Amino acid sequence: MAARRRRRRRGPVASSSVSVIPRSVLERLGASRGAVPCPVDPVLVARAAGPIFGEVRWFSEPGGRIRLGLGRQHRYVAAGPDRFATLREALVGRPAGEVAFVGFGFDPEGPASPEWAGFPAAEAVVPEVWIEAGSAGATIEVHPEATGVVDRLAELEAVPSAGVLEVGDHTVTSIPAPSTWRRDVAEAVEAIRSGTMTKVVLARAVRIVSAERPHPFELVDRLGLRYPGSYTFAWSHGPATFLGASPELLVASDLAWVRSNPLAGSAPRGEGELADEELGRGLMASPKDRLEHAIVVDDVAARLRPFVEDLEVPSEPSLRRMATVQHLSTTIVGRLARRVHLLDLVAALHPTPAVGGAPRDEAARFIAKVEAIDRGWYTGGVGWVDGTGRGEVAIALRCGLLGSDGTTLYAGAGIVADSEPDEELVETRLKFRPLLELLAAT
Q1: Structure confidence by residue, pLDDT tens digits, 42-63
Q2: Catalytic residue among 141, 248, 292, 424
Q3: Cα separations (Å) of 442 from 205, 209, 307, 439?
Q4: Among this protein's residues, is 199 annotated catalytic?
Q5: 322-344, pLDDT tens digit by residue?
Q6: Residue of 199, 292, 371, 424 with catalytic role
C-alpha cells in the first residue's frame, strides 16, 4: 500500500548542524532568571529536545499561541474519584508564575493496557524549560530550581524535516471490527429507548503499523497547519507520545471568567460551498442532533452554575466548521462568584456528555461493559494551569497514541434514541481523518 505524500509548508529544511537556541539567548539565560526573548521556532525546539530532555509537552490554542515544556522539574500524579483535587492540593502554594502541564485520562482509575504504560489517571508536570510563542514573538524561561539546563539547551541541534511524510508499507486494523461496533451502537440505542440513558458516547480505534515511524512533532506541526482552529497537543512518556488536534475546549479560566465550548451533533463537510451550506442547514434543523447537543449544553451549564454569578448560555447553537466535519457549537461564559482553581472546574465538568453520556454514571457503566478498547487519555484532557489556578484544558479528541511499534487512533460518536449505526460509523471515519490522512493512504 503506497504512502501518501504531503508537502510541508514551513519553508526550507534546516541543517542538522544548526543550533536551535541562539548563543545570545543562552548567554542571557545563564546570567539571569526570568523569561528571555527567544527568536526560535517551537517546532524545531520540540523536534530536537526529546533525546536531550527526555520529555516534551506541547499545547497550542486556536490562533497560534504555543506553550512548550522541556524536561520535568516536578511531577504530581493522582488516581481515583478525587484525582483533580489531589493535583490541585499539590499545586496550591507553588509560585504564581510557575506553569504546569495537566493531562488526564477518561477513566478515573487510569489506563490499564500496556500501550498506555507511563500515562497515569491524572498528571501535572512542571517543566525545566518553558517556551511560550505567539504573534508578538517567543520567550524562554528556565525553572529556578533546574540545573545544567543551559548546557543541555546548547546541545539542541535542528532535526531535518522529512519534507514529505514517508510512511512506507503499513497495515490498518479497526478495533473492534466495524460490524461489531455497529452492533454495540444498536445495543446502546435499545438501552436509551428503554429509559436507561438519554445519551452515551461509544468509541472505537484504528491501529496503524507502518514501516516508518514519523517524528511526533512532525505530525503536530502538520496538524497545526491543516487545522488552525484546533487545540494541538503532544505529551511524551518514554517511547510513546499522545498527540492530536482537538476542536473542543473543556474549560478555560482567568479567575474572573470561565468559558466552555461544548460540541455535539455532527455532519460531514460538503463538496463545494452550496453542498456544504445545505449540510450545515440540515444539521441545524436535525431533531436528533439538536437533542444530542442540548443534553451536553444543559449538563455543562448546570455544573458551572454553582461557581458563577452570571452565566451566558446562547439559546441557539452555531455551526463550527472543521476541515472534515461540522459540529453544533455553543460557547458558555460565566462570571465567577469566587476564586476557583481550574482543576476544581475540571472536576465538576469531566466527563461531559460530549464524551461520556447522560446520566453520567449510567453511561460510564455502559461504556465499561460494551467498549472493546482502552480509551487511555482519549476523551480525557490536556492543558495547562499556573500557580494562581488560571489556565485552560481541551478535551483530548482527534488524537492518537504514537508508540514504538505502531500508532492507535481514537474516535467516537454520541448515541441517542434516533441514532443509526451506519451513520455513526461514518461519523467516526470522518473524525479519524485528520491523523489517518497523515499516517496512511486512504
Answers
A1: 999 999 999 999 999 999 999 8
A2: 248
A3: 16, 14, 46, 9
A4: yes
A5: 988 999 999 999 999 999 999 99
A6: 199
